[in-house]
Amino acid sequence: MLRPHGEGTVAHGAWRVHERDMFRFLPLLLASAPAVAAAQAAQPGAWDVTSKVVDLTVPGVPGFIARMVRGQSKAEHRRLAAGEGAEALLAPDPKAHCRVDSQRIADGRYSQALSCPRKNGEPLRIARAGTYTAAGFVGRATLSGATPKGAMSVTLDQRAVRVGD
User: Fold this and answer.
1) Centroid of chain to Cα 124
2) pLDDT of residue 29
3) Dihedral sign, CA of 89, 45, 156, 119?
4) What is the pLDDT along the chain (165 residues), one digit of tens a residue?
5) Distance between CA 108 and CA 37 in Å, rounded?
6) 3-state SS string over the chain?
7) For an engineered disulfide with 124, which of 2, 22, 140, 145 has Cβ 3.0 to 4.6 Å away?
8) How do residues 49-77 score in pLDDT, each as one tens digit?
9) Nearest CA to 41 among 107, 97, 98?
10) Structure confidence by residue, pLDDT tens digits, 112-127
11) What contacts 24+ positions apart, CB below 8 Å, involve 81-84?
């Protein structure tokens, strides 16, 4: 609490804060630090998030189609506002109605688990992990689920880069 300047106080501008009261706010400041650090990790502007198919196993899909799909890329365009960070780039597309089951974004690394509903069957599970800097992120996503013919999986390399203002 703010108190008159005297023993046990720290001066900050025209205000004086009692040292004992500073420790009351310490847990709140520490709890908010990771969110602030993540928010500062990306610059505002236009970003491209590109996903490239590395591998896929889908029962019933002919081998030649699987070979055609490998190496294919798809870019998603995002716009970050000031104050948004890596978590905004990693957020799932709202149209997919995916749920973030777990997420950790700290110290230049991220990991995320998502579940996405499907019209028929169990949800599609997505596990993502990688690294991030102010310049973007690089990582891998693994999609897994079931089809009527068996288990399926798709592995994607993902990259986010800032492309403009």
Assistant:
1) 18
2) 26
3) positive
4) 333 444 443 333 333 333 333 333 323 223 322 333 343 458 899 999 999 999 999 999 999 999 999 999 999 999 999 888 888 999 998 999 999 999 999 999 999 999 999 988 899 999 999 999 888 999 999 999 999 899 999 999 999 999 998
5) 10
6) CECCCCCCEEEECCEEEEHHHHHHHHHHHHHHHHHHHHHCCCCCEEEEEEEEEEEEECCCCCHHHHHHHCCCEEEEEEEECCCCCHHHHHCCCHHHCCEEEEEEEECCEEEEEEEECCCCCCCEEEEEEEEEECCEEEEEEEEEEEECCEEEEEEEEEEEEEEEC
7) 145
8) 999 999 999 999 999 999 999 999 999 99
9) 107
10) 999 999 988 899 999 9
11) 81/44, 82/44, 83/39, 83/44, 84/39, 84/42, 84/44
Name the residue with tokens 């973030």. 100
Alpha carbon separation from 108 to 111, 129, 148 (Å, rounded): 11, 11, 39
